[in-house]
Structures are given as structure tokens and as C-alpha cells.
Amino acid sequence: MTLYKRRKKFSGFSASVGKAFGRFGSANAYTVLALLAAFIAAYFLLVQNFICAAVFFAAGAFLDAVDGAVARYRKSASARGAYFDTVSDRYMEGIIALVILLVPLPPFYLPSYFWAALYLFGSMTVTYVKAAAKEKLNREISGGLLERPERMIIVFIGILLAYFNAAYLTYVLVLLAVLANITALQRIRIAVKERL
Question: What sign for the dihedral angle of Cα 132, 154, 117, 171?
Fold first, then answer.
């Protein structure tokens, strides 16, 4: 299900994007722009302007993909840049989830803020499990049911659907909350199994 396994299929497109955007700025500049777009999306979410929120969220997600393509095109990829990009990713996803916590959405068995918090917990745990495996077990792990690209696509769909009915965003949060935590458990299993 993960796009990670299909990343090679997008290599040609990524190279074209890197060439097109690499003329106008550095990879880090696009990372900053992606983060800025995410914060603007968060503002529009807070005021429940879901269309504008979806537009800026999509722009941020696209720019986040651009930075890596630009780094490869300009042959400027570095450990520092990768670190900055990773931290930026966490801020982008975190600020959106935190703002959704504050948006009054219809409940689904439990309050919407519970599902938003569970989604945030799951997404951060997915990332932490990977980092912990590398630091503590000296293992590189990836994969799982729902990685970040898939989460971003689903969040975008949820925000867009909220324009028609806010309850749709609650349903998307439930889906994200469940699948993100399942992914974290999958990665824990992978890390422990490989270690054994």
C-alpha cells in the first residue's frame, strides 16, 4: 500500500521537478516555503475555511516533495539538509493535527479531539519507532500500512471533504488514528523481528 515501495516509478518525474524548480531556489528554501504553507493551511483550518486550508496544505505537501528533488538535481543533498527536512515534516504534520484538535467537529462515538490526538500520537510514534530502531538497534526500518505520504494524501482528502460536511473530516481522523497506530505496531514488530 505504501508509496515508499513505488518510489522508483516516480524517479523520472522527480528529476523533471528538480530540474524545473532547481533554477529558482535551494532545497532548504523550498523546505521553508513548505513549512510556511502548512502554517497558513493551519490558520485556515482554525477559521474553518476548508477550501483555502486544502489548497495551502496541498501546496505545502508539493513543496515538501520539491525540496528533495531540487537537492538531487543540484547535487546539494547533505545530512544537514535531510535533518532539516525531517524536522520540518514533523512540524508540518504536527501543526495540522494540533489545529484539528481545536476545530469543533462532529463526534464519532468519541469526541473528534480524541481521534485527532490519537492520530497525532500514532504519526509521531511511527517516526519515533524508526528513529529508535536506528539509534538503539542500528537498524534502518521503513514500510508499514500508512507512511507519511499516504497520511498526507488522506489528510488532504479529509480537509477537502470537510467543505461539504465537517463530519467527513471526523471519519478521516478515525481512519488515520487507527491506521497510524497499526503502522507503528508494524514497525515495532519489524524492528524486533530483524533484531532477533
Answer: negative
Q: Find the distance separating the first CA and the last CA of the chain, reported in whole Å.
A: 26
pLDDT, tens digit, 9 for 90 and up, residues 85-104: 888 889 999 999 999 999 99
d(CA 35, CA 153): 16
Count of all residues that appear for the chain in the document? 196
Q: Locate 36 and state its grid cell.
A: 510556511
Instruction: Give which of 62, 65, 47, 45 is closest to 159, Cα–Cα.
Output: 45
Cell of 154: 488522506
Q: Grid cell 528533495 — which residue?
A: 68
pLDDT tens column, 106-154: 999 999 999 999 999 999 999 888 888 887 777 777 777 888 889 999 9
Indicate the CATH number for domain 3-195: 1.20.120.1760
